[in-house]
Write a structure and sequence with these properties.
Elements (H helix, E strand, L loop, with lengths): L2 H9 L3 H24 L4 H13 L8 E2 L4 E2 L7 H11 L3 H9 L7 H6 L14 H10 L15 H9 L3 H13 L7
Antiparallel strand pairs: 1-2
């Protein structure tokens, strides 16, 4: 399986969006691999993590985000669900779950209801070690113009997550501890 070719298939002739998503996803994949190697995961799992990280934002191809050069109909928060649908259709169910479960530190059914997110009401939080690693790595990188290759500090990530409640910051703290990720300035 070639993640770049799969991204190209779904970003069709949208080279600008593909460039943004691929650069972001490559940064996420590199960070996720560093975390996974330090955790001592086997090569097969490292391979999966790299593929899943490269594909975690495939659903962005169908959302409405003009700053990312995407003009689909769905709101941004749907990109995880859409990514799951795409990768399920491609016969990649494990990769699909990474897509759906990578938003922040995960979305619970209660989050979806209380934030009125208009998503399917179901648990969308990372379950497996690989899902958690990709979601964790994703927190450190933005797709915003001018920030693509800048890694956020752990404090910046905390501040980003605090908007969604102290419990989200605590999940992040647990992941930092679980995977022995050092503080970054």
């Amino acid at each position: 399986m070639n993640p770049k070719a799969l991204l190209e298939k779904y970003y069709e002739d949208n080279d600008a969006a593909l460039e943004i998503v691929y650069r972001h996803s490559r940064n996420v994949a590199d960070k996720a691999l560093a975390i996974a190697v330090k955790a001592g995961l086997p090569q097969a799992e490292l391979d999966f993590i790299e593929e899943a990280a490269l594909l975690h934002d495939i659903g962005v191809s169908r959302i409405y985000a003009p700053k990312l050069n995407c003009f689909g109909k769905a709101p941004y928060v749907w990109h995880g669900v859409i990514g799951r649908e795409i990768l399920d259709a491609e016969g990649l169910p494990r990769h699909a779950m990474v897509c759906e479960r990578h938003i922040g530190v995960g979305l619970t059914a209660a989050d979806i209801v209380t934030q009125n997110l208009r998503l399917p009401v179901r648990e969308m939080s990372p379950v497996t070690t690989s899902e958690r690693i990709v979601a964790l790595a994703d927190l450190f990188f933005s797709k915003k113009g001018g920030e693509l290759d800048l890694e956020k500090s752990t404090q910046q990530v905390r501040c980003d997550l605090l908007r969604f409640g102290a419990q989200k910051v605590q999940i992040f703290e647990n992941w930092l501890n679980d995977f022995k990720v050092r503080e970054s300035a």
